[in-house]
Amino acid sequence: MHEALVLDKTAQDLLFRSARTANTFTDEPVTDEQVRAIHDLVKFGPTAMNNQALRVTVVRSPEARERLVEHMWDNNAPKTSTAPLSLILSADTDFHERLPEVFPVFPGARDNLAEAPEARERVAEQSAFLQIAYLIIGVRAAGLAAGPMTGFDAEGVRGEFFGEDSPLRPVVVMNVGKPGPDAWFDRLPRLDYEDVVTEV
Q1: Which of 33, 37, 29, 53 is nearest to 125 (CA)?
Q2: How far apart are CA 167 and CA 158, in angstroms?
Q3: Pick from 69, 1, 42: which is nearest to 144 by CA?
Q4: Residues 6+ apart with CB under 8 A from 16
Q5: pLDDT digits over 127-184, tens only?
Q6: Cβ neighbours around 199 below 10 Å, total
Q7: Among residues 152, 195, 144, which one has the least CA distance to residue 173?
Q8: What does the alpha-carbon distance between residue 189 and residue 34 come to, in Å, rounded to a whole number?
Q9: How far apart are CA 94 and CA 76, in angstroms?
Q10: Which of 27, 69, 148, 170 is exposed most, by the fewest CB atoms within 10 A?
């Protein structure tokens, strides 16, 4: 443990060292209260122009679960069919419509981006991925495990749940719950500080 870290070691382990991507889950439900508490924690993470482009679709009903599983690839399908909760995590390419509200320090931001759909899509996806990282940590902070996946038919999910003309672009499906039997694969190696950090 590094003494330079202010966060308690138990919390460090919960969020990072002991945390793993779960592949199986128990049938213990994830409550609306837990989902709201996670959001209320991680919503403070930074995004470009405070755009908060991530949109979360909570998949609970058996009918919606079946529709989602149809678009999951390979082993991601059975994982999703048995998880107590699945989240479709999407980048909202119309995030600029909320900029007057969430980024009032730049009054022209909305109008500038209204004429730049490719830039909006790029910024929305970058910010959504940042927020998904915060969300994983928030799930762990709630004592739950996350199983984020990109192995699915994103356009199929978009058409199935939002419509082909929707501004929402699904980028990750995340299963959430208490880890079940044999939930973890072996821990894979991590790069050392010297392999990652350089000074200039």
Answers
A1: 53
A2: 9
A3: 42
A4: none
A5: 999 999 999 999 999 999 999 999 999 999 999 999 999 999 999 999 999 999 999 9
A6: 3
A7: 152
A8: 31
A9: 29
A10: 27
Residue that has been written with the tokens 């672009």 in this structure: 169
Rounded to 5 degrees, φ, ψ at 67 are -65, -40
CB 12 within 8 A of CB 1: yes
Written as six digits, the tokens of 123 are 């910024």
Q: Which of 66, 34, 71 is nearest to 173 (CA)?
A: 71
Among candidates 181, 140, 190, which has minimal Cα distance to 23?
181
What is the pTM for the complete model shown?
A: 0.95
- The Cα 111–Cα 55 span in angstroms is 22
Closest CA to 65 of 51, 77, 74, 47: 77
CB count in 10 Å sphere of residue 23: 20
Residue position matching structure tokens 């930074």: 46
Q: Spell out the long-range contacts of 38-42 with Cβ–Cβ below 8 A and sequence spacing 24 or more.
A: 38/135, 38/138, 38/139, 38/141, 38/142, 39/138, 41/138, 41/141, 42/131, 42/134, 42/135, 42/137, 42/138
Who's near 177: CB < 8 A, 6+ residues apart? Answer: 22, 25, 26, 28, 30, 83, 84, 85, 144, 145
